[in-house]
Amino acid sequence: MNVKTVLILLVLALATIFALVCVLLTRGRAPSTCQHQPPEQEDSDDGQSLVFADLTPEEMAQVVRYLQGNLGVQLVDASRAKPSDNCIASVDLQVPAKAEVLQFLDGGGPRPPREALAVLYFGNQPDPNVTEYVVGPLPTPVYHRDVTVQKYGGKVPYHRRPVTGKEYVDINALIQRELRKAPRFLAACCESDGTDLAILTTAPRGFKSGDRATWFVLFHSVSGSGYFLSPVGLEVLVDHRDLQVSRWQLRQVFYNGEYFASMGDLEDMFVADLLEVIRIEKPQAEAVLGSMRPRHLPGSPGPLQYEPHGPRYSIRDNRVTFQGWSITFGMNPNSGPRLFDIRYRGERIVYELSLQEALALYGSNCPGGMLTRYLDGSFGIGRFAYELVRGLDCPYTATYVDRHYLAESETPRTNQNSLCIFEHDAALPLRRHFSDLQSLYYGGLRKNTLVIRAISTLINYDYIWDFMFHSSGAMEVRVHATGYISSSFLHGQGTDYGNRVGPHTLGTMHLHHIHYKVDLDVDGQLNSLETQDMGYELVKEPWGMQHTIERPYLRRKRLEREDEAAFPLNTPMPRYLSFAGPNPNKWGHPRSYRIQITSFAGEHLPASSRMERSISWGRYQLAVTRRKEEEPTSTSIYNQNDPWTPTVAFADFINNETITNEDLVAWISVGFLHVPHAEDVPNTVTVGNGVGFFLRPYNYFNEDPSVDSPDSIYFSSEQDAGACGANPLACLAPASACVPHLPPFRYGGFLNL
C-alpha cells in the first residue's frame, strides 16, 4: 500500500468520524422543521404607511427648537412653567387631509408634507390663551401657522387648558400648608400629620365657564398598594384660577358629611368637641384594603402560547400584515390608539379607526364623588399607555413596540414596549361542521386572530384597548376595564350611591362610556347606510289556504339623512345596519360592512345638564355623519375644564345632511354601568366588563373569505385522519418540539413616570 492510498483512507476515516460526531451532537435537537419561516410577503407599500406615522423623538425635538427660535416669546419648559408663563404643552402628528393622502396612496400623487401640531399655553400675555400651530415640513421645519381660529372659531380661553403636573405640584403644596392648620384633628381622625396622605383630583372644576376650583379627596397612602380604597373622609376645595400661584386659596373643607370654611375652622370645632370624628387607624402594608400582593407561593406555570415557526405576521415601520390584512397603527398622546388604511386582500375597508374619548361619571354623597365626570382624553389616554408586562398583559412571545410622545416637557419621552401585536388562538372554531348524514366528514377552521393591544392607566382605572382582525374579514374592537374602583368615605345614606366594600369605604357607582370614530370606505369612499330588520306577516298556507302562518319577513331601508342615522343611547336600533358600497357582489347585493355593537351602557347625562353638550356624543349609541375635514374628532381636550361652553360639541355634527353616496363616518358609543361590590376588591376584573363592536362583511364577498385560509382542516371517513398528509393536525407532533427560546423577562415601566 503506497503513501497516497494511506492518505486517502485517512481522509475518508476522518470524514466518517466527523459525520458521526455531527449526528451525535444534533441528536435530540429540534428537527429542521423548527427553522423560522418568515410570513409570505404581502403587497409592499414602499413606505407609504409612514404618511400616518407618529412623530419620532428627533422630529419632536426639531419642532421644539423651531418654536423656541421663531415665536419671538420666551418659552419656559412646561415641566416647571407657572400659569403665568408661556410653554409648549404638547407636540403630535398633524394628520394630513384625507384627499391628499388618498391622492398619494391611490392616485400616484405627491407625498403630503409631514407636519406637527403644537399646542402652546400663553400665560405671559395681556390676553392669556391656548394656541395651536401646524409646524412643518419635517424633519426640518421652516414655517408655522396658527390654526386655532380655523379649528375652533376663535382663540381657546386660557382657563380651558388641561391641568399640568406642575400645577398639581403647586396645589399639593397649598393643601399641605393648609393641613398643618389642623394638627390635632388629623392626629385624631387619621393618625397622620397630613404629609402621608394621598391627594386625588376630581373634574370638572366648578359650575360655570371660567371656574377653576377643584375638589381634592384625601386617602391613606400605603406604599405598594392602591390608596383609592382608603378614604379618610376629608376633602378640600382649592380655587386655582388666578395666574399667580400665591393667590390660590382653599375655599372649603368637607369632613364626614359636614362643610367648613377652612382647616382652621375644622380644627376649632374639633378642639371644642363639637365634631364627630371617625377614628381610622393607619393601615398596615400587610393588611391594607386592596393589596395586590400574592397570598400564596407561585404554582406551576399555566399554558404558554407560542409560534413553532415564528410569527405569522410581519411588521414594517408602523404597518402590520397578516393573512390578507394590512393595518397602519399609531398612538395619539391624548385620545389613544389610532389605526389607518385598514385593508383586506388589498382593498381598503377602513380609512381611520380611532378612539376618541373615555368618560367616567360618578355618583356619591361626598362632594368629590358627586361632581366627578372624568374625560380621560384631557389627562392623556395615549400618554399614559405604559410598558406592557410580557406574559400577562400580552403573550410572552408577542411583538412589543415603543411609543413616543412630547407633553408637558421640551424633551420627548418614550413608553417602551407599550403596544403589543400578536396572533391569538381563541381555542374556539371560527367555523366547523361534523357531517353524520349521507357522507361522513369533518371540516373546520380555528379562530386565530391578529390582535393590536395597548393598556392605559388613568389614575385608578386601567383600560385594555384591543383591535382584532379575523380571517373571515371581520374586525373586532373591544375595551375592558380593570384596576381600582374609586371610592368615597361612607357616611349617611351613602349606600344610595353604591355598596360598602370596606370598614369606611363606599364603592361609588359610575358609568364608563367610550367613543370611537370609524371612517369606513367600503368598496370606495362613497357609501350609503342600509338597515334590515324583521317583522311577522300573517299569511294563509298557499298549498291549502286553510291555516295561517306567522311568517318572518325582512324589512329593508336606506337611510337618507343624518337625523335618521342618529340612534339614541339605550333605544332599539335596526339589528342589521351596514355601510353599503356602490357595486354589487356576485349575487346582486350591495357590497357592505355591517356594524354590530355590544354594549351595556348606563344612562346618558340628562339633556337639561349645562355640561351635557360637552359629551353630547354620548347621546347616541351610533351616529352616522358625512365626513368633514373640519370635524376630525368628537371632542376636545379643552372640554374637561370648561364643559359648560364646549370647544367641540359633537351634537353640532348632526345637521340632517344627506348621507346617500357620500363619504361617511360612523361614531360609536359603548359602555357599561358599574356598581362596585365586594368582589371589586382589590381590583375590578375584566370578566363581564368588556364592551365593543364588530365590523363584519355583509355580502362584501361572494363567500366566506376564510375558505382560503391555509389553516383549514378537512378529512372524511375514508381517510386516515392520523396521517399528516391528510390532516394538518396530525403534523403537530414534530412542531411540539419547536419550543421557542424565550427572551429574559425585563420590565422598565417604572423608569419613565
Counted by DSSP, the helix tally is 10
Structural class: mainly beta
CATH class of the largest domain: Mainly Beta
Question: Main sheet?
Answer: 26 strands, antiparallel
Shape: globular
Family: Belongs to the copper/topaquinone oxidase family.
EC number: 1.4.3.-
Domain Copper amine oxidase N2-terminal: 72-143
Domain Copper amine oxidase catalytic: 305-706
Key phrases:
mainly beta; Nuclear Transport Factor 2, Chain: A; 3 domains; five-stranded antiparallel β-sheet; about 750 residues; about 15% helix; Beta-galactosidase, Chain A, domain 5; 26-stranded antiparallel β-sheet; 34 strands
Write the layout of secondary structure elements.
Elements: H1 3-26, H2 57-70, E1 86-94, H3 98-106, E2 115-122, E3 129-136, E4 143-146, H4 148-152, E5 156-157, H5 165-179, H6 183-190, E6 197-201, E7 213-220, E8 231-239, E9 249-255, E10 258-260, H7 263-271, E11 314-316, E12 319-322, E13 325-332, E14 336-344, E15 347-362, H8 367-371, E16 373-375, H9 376-379, E17 399-407, E18 413-435, E19 441-458, E20 461-470, E21 475-483, E22 487-489, E23 498-502, E24 505-508, E25 510-520, E26 526-540, E27 548-559, E28 566-568, E29 576-584, E30 590-598, E31 620-626, E32 662-674, E33 690-698, E34 713-716, H10 732-735
Antiparallel strand pairs: 1-2, 1-17, 2-3, 3-4, 3-5, 6-7, 7-8, 8-9, 9-10, 11-12, 12-13, 13-14, 14-15, 15-16, 15-25, 17-18, 18-19, 19-20, 19-34, 20-21, 21-33, 22-24, 23-24, 25-32, 26-27, 26-29, 26-32, 28-31, 29-30, 30-33, 31-32
